[in-house]
Amino acid sequence: MSTPQAFLAAGPGFLDPQWLISTFGLIGILAVVFAESGLLIGFFLPGDSLLFTAGLLVADGRYVHQPLWLLCLLVAVAAIAGDQVGYLFGRRVGPSLFRRPDSRLFKQEYVERANAFFTRYGARSIVLARFVPVVRTFTPIIAGVSRMHYRTFLIFNILGGVLWGVGVTVLGYFLGQIAFVKTNIEFILVGIVVVSVLPIGLQLLRSRRKAAPEDTSPAGAQPGPRH
Fold first, then answer.
1. Nearest CA to 156 among 172, 140, 180?
2. Which residues does the chain have with pLDDT short of 70?
3. Which of 52, 101, 124, 136 has the maximum number of C-beta atoms within 10 A of its C-beta?
4. Alpha-carbon distance 193 to 206, whole Å?
5. pTM over 0.85
6. Is residue 70 part of a domain?
7. How far apart, in whole angstroms, are the C-alpha atoms of residue 67 and residue 5?
């Protein structure tokens, strides 16, 4: 087994785009895109790197044998459908989402980040959030909580789903046509896995630091005698 393949095999499977695609094929790609676009449990999934890798593998003729136009169409539909579910979920749960306690998979800071993003950019956030991991998952939910006008949401949802789903996939496809990329595709995939894992690792590190009790007493200080 080559060094890049050994590295990929040692990594977490659900964060390895090549493993996801080789194991589950087109259905796996669409399931991840749908979940990451609007389900609370999907924020940690590698949406960007998965689509980029899918485009690379279409160009390479490996694992994904559907034509590029069909892959792009189905990915856009899955992304739009995922955001629709997120929006409807937000309308249903309402402000109670902001009172939901933290857990291993859910942190209030994710909701707060998405809410700040939505407040800053308004309807445009539905498009812009597509290109921001974690925020991408929670923004349609926040739009539902905020009772954003449905027609406005639908228009921006379709626009964002097409720009993100088609754009990232096509970018991977055309880069996969480059000779250097084709001859070094294993190393490229290793880099994609690293990029996928890094934000999640940083997020976990930040969460652990916030959860750690703060010791405000001077180092080595001992309580003095009482008089």
1. 140
2. 1-15, 43, 97-98, 102-107, 182, 185-187, 189, 191-227
3. 136
4. 20
5. no
6. yes
7. 26
pLDDT for residue 47: 79
Helix axes 68-93, 47-60, angle to 10 degrees: 170
Task: Measure the CA–CA gap between 194 and 132, rounded to whole angstroms.
Answer: 17
Is residue 27 in some structural domain? yes
Measured CA to CA in angstroms, residue 125 lies from 85, 134, 202 at distances of 17, 13, 24
**pLDDT at residue number 17:** 82
Domain that holds residue 122: 3-206
* pLDDT at residue 11 in the model: 46
**Domain count of the chain?**
1
The torsion angle over the Cα atoms of residues 164, 56, 78 and 131, rounded to 10 degrees, is -30
Q: Which two tokens stand for residue 110?
A: 């994710």
What pLDDT is stored for residue 68 in this prediction?
93
Question: Can you say how many angstroms the Cα of residue 204 is from the centroid of all Cα atoms in its chain?
Answer: 15
